[in-house]
């Protein structure tokens, strides 16, 4: 996966990054509040030697630099800490004094700096003053030979002791920056790990790889599609409707040398929107002037008649058992060249009925009665009905809902079609998240509905309605006459 892929995973799981960022900032703030303030008192010593000690200046400088390193260890010794506590008992033990003293030296110089850290500002200053006096006294005692009057090395205080006016810790700004940065990095790592571990179908590229078929369309998610699933009325000018029209175009030209006239629409699981897509594709094809026949072959949970507002009590099941003729139960929908064959009564043996010779003969006859036959079938992983119908069609269209179906389920559905040599025309990613930029481009280029025409006189309107009704009856008679009896 490239950098863009990782960035997409982070953007997809932005809420994880936000939670960890807030957790990091909160932890840093809590630590800052609960940490007692600490003050630092410091003192700087200058190490020198009398002129009568070492005559050569260069060798004397090297000698003093070596001694400064020893003095740094002496500042943190047990002996000095015990003498400080004995001189000025401020509620600290020798171990505590020794642990709070730190030293530093500058390379190439004879300066020695000692710092003492404490939560009490006054105690830090008093302890440093006592430490400074006892350290000078100890050095003079150690460096002065028993028979000498003065030490060959002299130690002077050149800065301090002084204590900081404000606490050196905690540092709220630094803590918040560090906490926020750690939370951000942790959130990004968790977002990437969650994305890599997510087995659900998230994008069109993954759907193509899993199914091994071309992507014919991405149908965007619209919150109003649940209450108004069909692309009619106001929904006809939506982004979803335009995506269905693109699918219609791709479906017609997916194979120009061997066009599919009978298409089975199926999915891996139920609830992925295959029935809605079947209805909308049929409507889009009819809008383009094709003679379309939509068949509801999902005999276990039929929904086509409900979506289109038709009577589904008599339909495909009754035709297959020989109770009625197909021309008697096919219904015309709307003012478009769209015929609908509902499912009919629920049979006890859907798979056997759909795989019967009567079903094969019916599809063979309907192939000549319409330009395109769309068949809504059952989910592939739930029952075998979808495979049984797809075998008899010219090809299958696999619908997958984004973020719901796992890659393994989609792969199993594709294998079930390939195992019986079903021609998989392509796949459709349903309820997909469309970038705002794409939606804005469509909205900015959508067709403006013209103003309503002037009112028509009543007598002319009645004549027009009479003529339209007559033409409508003639069209229905011609369409139904093509259906087998």
Summary keywords:
Rossmann fold; 4-stranded antiparallel sheet; 8-stranded mixed sheet; 19 helices; alpha/beta
Structure description:
- This protein is an alpha/beta fold and 485 residues long.
- It has three domains: 3-35 and 171-197, no CATH class; 39-163, Alpha-Beta Plaits (2-Layer Sandwich), CATH 3.30.70; 204-447, Rossmann fold.
- It is built from 19 helices and twelve strands.
- The protein has an eight-stranded mixed β-sheet with strand order 5-12-11-6-10-7-9-8, with helices on both faces. It has a four-stranded antiparallel β-sheet with strand order 2-3-1-4.
- Helix 8 (204-211) runs parallel beside helix 17 (407-418).
- The longest helix has 26 residues, at 172-197.
- It is rod-shaped and about 130 Å long.
- It is found in: Cell inner membrane.
- Its EC number is 2.7.10.2.
- It catalyses: L-tyrosyl-[protein] + ATP = O-phospho-L-tyrosyl-[protein] + ADP + H(+).
Helicity level, as a percent range?
A: 40-55%
Number of DSSP E strands: 12
Instruction: Please mark out the parts with pLDDT under 50 across 5 or more consecutive residues, or reply none.
Output: 448-473
What is the level-2 CATH architecture name of the largest domain? 3-Layer(aba) Sandwich
Task: Record the SSE blueprint.
Elements: H1 3-12, H2 14-34, E1 39-48, H3 57-75, H4 78-87, H5 94-100, E2 101-105, E3 111-118, H6 121-143, E4 154-163, H7 172-197, H8 204-211, E5 215-220, H9 239-252, E6 262-267, H10 274-287, E7 292-296, H11 304-308, H12 316-320, H13 326-329, E8 331-332, E9 338-341, H14 350-354, H15 357-366, E10 372-376, H16 385-392, E11 395-401, H17 407-418, E12 424-432, H18 436-445, H19 458-481
Parallel strand pairs: 5-12, 6-10, 6-11, 7-9, 7-10, 11-12
Antiparallel strand pairs: 1-3, 1-4, 2-3, 8-9
Transmembrane segments: 12-33
Biased composition (Basic and acidic residues): 473-485
Pfam families: AAA_31 (PF13614), Wzz (PF02706)
């Amino acid at each position: 996966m490239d950098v863009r892929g990782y960035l997409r995973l982070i953007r997809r799981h932005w809420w994880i990054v936000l939670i960890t960022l807030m957790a990091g900032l909160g932890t840093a703030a809590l630590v800052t509040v609960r940490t007692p303030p600490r003050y630092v008192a410091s003192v700087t010593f200058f190490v020198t030697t009398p002129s009568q000690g070492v005559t050569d200046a260069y060798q004397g400088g090297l000698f003093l630099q070596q001694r400064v390193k020893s003095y740094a260890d002496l500042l943190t010794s047990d002996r000095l800490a015990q003498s400080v506590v004995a001189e000025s008992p401020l509620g600290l033990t020798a171990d505590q004094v020794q642990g709070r003293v730190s030293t530093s030296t500058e390379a190439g110089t004879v300066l020695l700096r000692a710092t003492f850290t404490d939560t009490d500002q006054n105690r830090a200053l008093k302890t440093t003053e006592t430490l400074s006096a006892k350290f000078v006294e100890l050095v003079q005692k150690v460096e002065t030979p028993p028979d000498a009057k003065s030490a060959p090395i002299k130690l002077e205080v050149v800065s301090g002791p002084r204590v900081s006016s404000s606490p050196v810790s905690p540092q709220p700004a630094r803590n918040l920056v560090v906490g926020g940065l750690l939370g951000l990095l942790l959130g990004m790592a968790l977002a990437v790990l969650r994305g890599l571990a997510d087995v659900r179908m998230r994008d069109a590229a993954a759907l193509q790889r899993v199914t091994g078929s071309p992507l014919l369309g991405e149908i965007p998610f619209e919150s109003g599609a649940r209450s108004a699933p069909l692309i009619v009325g106001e929904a006809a000018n939506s982004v979803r409707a335009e995506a269905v029209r693109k699918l219609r175009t791709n479906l017609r030209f997916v194979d120009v040398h061997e066009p599919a006239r009978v298409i089975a629409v199926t999915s891996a699981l139920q609830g992925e929107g295959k029935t809605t897509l079947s209805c909308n594709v049929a409507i889009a094809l009819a809008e383009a002037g094709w003679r379309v026949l939509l068949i509801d072959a999902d005999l276990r949970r039929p929904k086509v008649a409900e979506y289109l507002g038709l009577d589904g009590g008599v339909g495909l099941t009754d035709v297959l058992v020989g109770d009625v003729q197909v021309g008697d139960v096919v219904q015309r929908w709307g003012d478009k060249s769209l015929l609908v064959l509902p499912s009919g009564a629920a049979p006890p043996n859907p798979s056997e009925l759909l795989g019967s010779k009567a079903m094969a003969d019916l599809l063979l006859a309907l192939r000549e009665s319409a330009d395109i036959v769309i068949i809504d079938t059952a989910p592939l992983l739930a029952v075998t009905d979808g495979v049984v119908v797809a075998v008899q069609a010219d090809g299958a269209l696999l619908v997958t809902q984004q973020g719901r179906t796992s890659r393994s389920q989609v792969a199993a559905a594709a294998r079930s079609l390939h195992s019986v040599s079903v021609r998989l025309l392509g796949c459709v990613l349903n309820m997909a998240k469309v970038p705002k930029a794409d939606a804005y481009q469509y909205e900015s280029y959508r067709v403006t509905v013209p103003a309503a025409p002037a009112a028509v006189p009543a007598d002319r309107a009645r004549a027009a309605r009479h003529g339209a009704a007559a033409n409508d009856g003639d069209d229905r008679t011609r369409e139904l006459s093509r259906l087998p009896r």
